[in-house]
C-alpha cells in the first residue's frame, strides 16, 4: 500500500536506539508524558477562560466570529492532515515529543510545507473556538498559553528527530524551513538563495 519507490529508503525510529538508560522502553516521563499532561491542562485552562469570561464581556462582533470559522477550518485541515499522515504510514499519532519506535520520518502531505502542522492546527482550533464564541479573553489565553508551549515542545521534538534521523532530518529541514507557518518553501531551492533541494 506504500506509494514510495522501491529504491527509496525509509528511515524508521526503530533503526536508532530509543531505549532508556536502563535498556527498557522509554517510560511515560522519558517519552514526554509530563508535557502531555501539561498540554491537556493548558487546553482545559483555555476552555475554562472561555466559559468564565464569556458571560462578563459579551460577544465579539459577528465578522470576528465568522473569522473563527475560517481559522477553525484551517486548524481542522492541518490537524486532520497530520493525523492522516501518521495513519497513512501505519502509525498511531503520537502525543509525545519522543517519536514512537518504528515510525518513519513523515515528510509528505501537510508535512511537506510545515514541520509541525498538528501543533499549529491545535492552536488554530482553540483560537477558532474562542473567536466563534466571541470571547476575546479566550483568544488571548490560547495565544499566550498554547503558542509558547507548542514551540517548546516542537524544539524538543526536533532535537529527538535530529538524533534519530540525522542527515534525513537535516535534508527535510532544508526543504521545509518553517516549523509552523509556511512562509517560505524550498521545494525547488528558489526561496532561499544558496540552498538547493536535497
Looking at the structure, the CATH topology is Four Helix Bundle (Hemerythrin (Met), subunit A)
Q: Proportion of β residues?
A: under 5%
Arithmetic mean pLDDT: 82
Characterize the overall form: globular
SSE string, helices as H and strands as E? HHHHHH
Main sheet overview: none
Query: Could you tell me the number of beta strands?
Result: 0
Uncertain segments: 1-10, 185-198
Given the structure, what is the number of helices? 6
CATH class: Mainly Alpha
Distance between the termini: 25 Å
Number of domains: 1
What is the strand and helix layout of this fold?
Layout: H1 28-31, H2 33-57, H3 62-88, H4 117-133, H5 136-165, H6 167-175
Quickly describe the structure:
With 198 residues, this protein is an all-alpha fold. The protein has a single domain, classed as Four Helix Bundle (Hemerythrin (Met), subunit A) (Up-down Bundle).
Features:
single chain; disordered N terminus; 57% helix; mainly alpha; 198 residues; disordered C terminus; Four Helix Bundle (Hemerythrin (Met), subunit A)
Description:
This protein is 57% helix and 0% strand. The protein is mostly helical. The chain has one domain: Four Helix Bundle (Hemerythrin (Met), subunit A), CATH 1.20.120.1630. Helix 2 runs antiparallel to helix 5, helix 3 runs antiparallel to helix 4 (117-133) and helix 4 (117-133) packs antiparallel against helix 5 (136-165). The protein is globular, with a radius of gyration of 19 Å.
Amino acid at each position: 500500500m506504500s506509494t514510495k519507490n522501491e529504491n527509496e529508503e525509509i528511515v524508521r525510529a526503530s533503526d536508532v536506539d530509543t531505549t532508556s538508560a536502563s535498556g527498557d522502553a522509554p517510560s511515560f516521563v522519558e517519552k514526554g508524558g509530563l508535557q502531555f499532561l501539561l498540554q491537556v491542562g493548558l487546553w482545559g485552562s483555555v476552555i475554562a477562560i472561555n466559559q468564565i469570561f464569556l458571560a462578563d464581556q459579551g460577544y465579539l462582533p459577528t465578522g470576528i466570529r465568522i473569522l473563527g470559522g475560517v481559522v477553525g477550518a484551517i486548524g481542522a485541515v492541518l490537524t486532520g492532515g497530520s493525523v492522516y499522515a501518521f495513519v497513512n504510514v501505519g502509525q498511531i499519532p503520537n502525543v509525545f515529543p519522543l517519536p514512537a519506535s518504528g515510525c518513519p520520518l513523515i515528510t509528505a502531505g501537510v508535512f511537506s510545507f510545515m514541520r509541525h502542522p498538528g501543533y499549529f492546527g491545535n492552536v488554530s482550533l482553540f483560537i477558532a473556538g474562542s473567536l466563534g464564541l466571541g470571547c476575546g479573553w479566550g483568544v488571548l489565553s490560547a495565544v499566550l498559553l498554547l503558542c509558547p508551549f507548542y514551540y517548546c515542545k516542537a524544539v524538543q521534538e526536533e532535537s529527538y528527530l535530529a538524533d534519530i534521523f540525522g542527515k534525513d532530518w537535516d535534508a527535510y529541514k532544508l526543504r521545509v524551513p518553517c516549523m509552523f507557518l509556511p512562509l517560505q518553501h524550498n521545494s525547488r531551492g528558489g526561496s532561499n538563495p544558496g540552498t538547493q533541494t536535497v
